[in-house]
TrEMBL record:
<dbReference type="GO" id="GO:0005829">
    <property type="term" value="C:cytosol"/>
</dbReference>
<dbReference type="InterPro" id="IPR050343">
    <property type="entry name" value="RsuA_PseudoU_synthase"/>
</dbReference>
<dbReference type="InterPro" id="IPR020103">
    <property type="entry name" value="PsdUridine_synth_cat_dom_sf"/>
</dbReference>
<dbReference type="Pfam" id="PF01479">
    <property type="entry name" value="S4"/>
</dbReference>
<dbReference type="InterPro" id="IPR020094">
    <property type="entry name" value="TruA/RsuA/RluB/E/F_N"/>
</dbReference>
<keyword id="KW-0413">Isomerase</keyword>
<dbReference type="GO" id="GO:0120159">
    <property type="term" value="F:rRNA pseudouridine synthase activity"/>
</dbReference>
<dbReference type="Pfam" id="PF00849">
    <property type="entry name" value="PseudoU_synth_2"/>
</dbReference>
<dbReference type="InterPro" id="IPR006145">
    <property type="entry name" value="PsdUridine_synth_RsuA/RluA"/>
</dbReference>
<dbReference type="GO" id="GO:0000455">
    <property type="term" value="P:enzyme-directed rRNA pseudouridine synthesis"/>
</dbReference>
<dbReference type="InterPro" id="IPR042092">
    <property type="entry name" value="PsdUridine_s_RsuA/RluB/E/F_cat"/>
</dbReference>
<dbReference type="InterPro" id="IPR000748">
    <property type="entry name" value="PsdUridine_synth_RsuA/RluB/E/F"/>
</dbReference>
<feature type="domain" description="RNA-binding S4">
    <location>
        <begin position="3"/>
        <end position="68"/>
    </location>
</feature>
<dbReference type="InterPro" id="IPR002942">
    <property type="entry name" value="S4_RNA-bd"/>
</dbReference>
<keyword id="KW-0694">RNA-binding</keyword>
<dbReference type="GO" id="GO:0003723">
    <property type="term" value="F:RNA binding"/>
</dbReference>
<dbReference type="InterPro" id="IPR036986">
    <property type="entry name" value="S4_RNA-bd_sf"/>
</dbReference>
Length: 248
């Protein structure tokens, strides 16, 4: 049965569907020797698909991994500065996986990696609204009014953030710090850090403890595991389990 070219490329582990679309639009993909630039082009089983002159392999087994990302690791497949990437951490995974979304270099915690381009595209779409639970150690102790502002949305880079859940789970009056648990479903650049900075509490340390229903409480820093079948189905069906430990 004919499938969209970008879908076949994503399922073969070439790149995410969005990245595959860019490869097509930029003229890097040929089908049976003909350069294809039109998105939505359908291909049939047996068609010869090449990216920059290299044929793609047949659809590989779809795999899904949850990583407790360590600090000092970049969320990319490769890094021009030679820094350790999340792909380096998953050194025993044979399939060509890529991260779903990003965590900052100095942020730790739950990161999903997969070669399922369709699911990755779905999870990163703004309409999906998957919960992402962060625990942040911040300077100062947020007031009730500041927490209310986080819950209602604050202006970051000229745009108001969506409603969130925000709670103080620990305070250290001697050091003048607090641990804040913040649940968001957007994925804007440095969003958690910028939200907390906007209410006067810069982040000292940041950890994402949960992505959807996937928690990393049982994984040491740098450890990863394959997702169970039911977890994959939860992600595909858009169902979430709302629970959190509040650890940092």
């Amino acid at each position: 049965m004919a499938e969209r070219l970008q879908k076949v490329m994503a399922q073969a582990g070439v790149a995410s569907r969005r990245a595959s679309e860019k490869l097509i639009s930029d003229g890097h993909v040929t089908v049976n020797g003909q350069t294809i630039t039109e998105l939505g082009t359908r291909v049939n089983p047996g068609d010869k698909i090449e990216v920059n002159g290299s044929p793609i392999e047949g659809s590989e087994k779809l795999v899904y991994y949850l990583l407790n990302k360590p600090r000092g690791v970049v969320t990319t497949a490769s890094d021009e500065k030679g820094r350790t990437t999340v792909i380096d951490v998953l050194d025993e995974v044979k399939e060509r996986v890529y991260p779903v979304g990003r965590l900052d270099y100095d942020t730790t915690g739950a990161l999903l990696l997969t070669n399922d381009g369709e699911l990755a595209n779905q999870l990163m779409h703004p309409r999906y609204k998957i919960d992402k639970v962060y625990v942040a150690k911040v300077k100062g102790i947020p007031t009730n009014d500041e927490l209310k502002a986080l819950r209602l949305g604050v202006v970051v880079a000229g745009k108001k953030t969506a409603e969130a859940r925000a709670d103080v789970v620990r305070t250290d009056h001697k050091k003048g710090t607090a641990t804040v648990q913040l649940t968001i479903h957007e994925g804007r650049y440095h969003q958690v850090k910028e939200m907390l900075k906007a209410v006067g509490h810069p982040v000292i340390k940041l950890h994402r403890e949960r992505y959807g229903m996937l928690e990393v409480a049982d994984l040491l820093s740098g450890e990863y595991r394959a997702l169970r079948h039911d977890e994959v189905q939860y992600l595909k069906n858009g169902r979430q389990i709302r629970k959190s430990s509040g650890r940092l």
